[in-house]
């Protein structure tokens, strides 16, 4: 006599396969969220790169006569303060050196307070540097580094590669016209 329906073994095997599938989906979800945060951090770093390059380009008349004086080995250690002329709100009253000081001051504040949209997490332990590439033709290397996950013991200097840190870098030419 043949009975219709499922045996207990068949149901247990089906539940086991279903559970493995659900666990796999949960694992993929956590990887997707982590990847999304990394992409958003990289986009944030890219926008900060664009910000400082635009600032440098706007101040290029002064910059071309001052031997790339935006050079800074670590924005974290930079002591630039907002000049008095910039506090009044009109940069047109500022000299080139004051504009540079204001640019670095504002860029440092953006770097340290930047957050990924909809999150309190931004660029963790971020640092940036602007270094002369040594050609003497107005090309600078701009690098932004940040920590992938918050673990302060693995912080490296700006521009030094590490598997625990992410970095975005670009070469930028400051034109005279």
Short summary of the structure?
The chain has helices spanning 8-58, 60-64, 84-87, 96-113, and strands spanning 124-132, 139-147, 165-173. With 177 residues, the chain is of the alpha+beta class.
Structural write-up:
The chain has helices spanning about 10-60, 60-65, 85, 95-115; strands at about 125-130, 140-145, 165-175. The protein has one domain. It is an alpha+beta fold. The longest helix is centred in the first third of the chain and has 51 residues, at about 10-60. It starts with 7 loop residues before the first helix and ends with a strand. Helix 1 (about 10-60) packs antiparallel against helix 4. About 45% of the residues lie in helices and about 15% in strands. The mean pLDDT is about 80. It has a 3-stranded antiparallel sheet with strand order 1-2-3, with helices on one face.
Number of strands: 3
The span between the termini is: 94 Å
Backbone structural class: alpha+beta
Helical amount among residues, as a percent range? 40-55%
Shape descriptor: elongated
Poorly predicted segments: none
The portion of residues forming beta strands comes to 15-25%
- Helices, by number, come to 4
Radius of gyration: 25 Å
- Order of strands in the sheet with the most strands? 1-2-3
Overall residue-averaged pLDDT value: 79
Major β-sheet profile: 3 strands, antiparallel
**Count of individual domains:** 1
How do the helices and strands follow one another from N- to C-terminus?
A: HHHHEEE
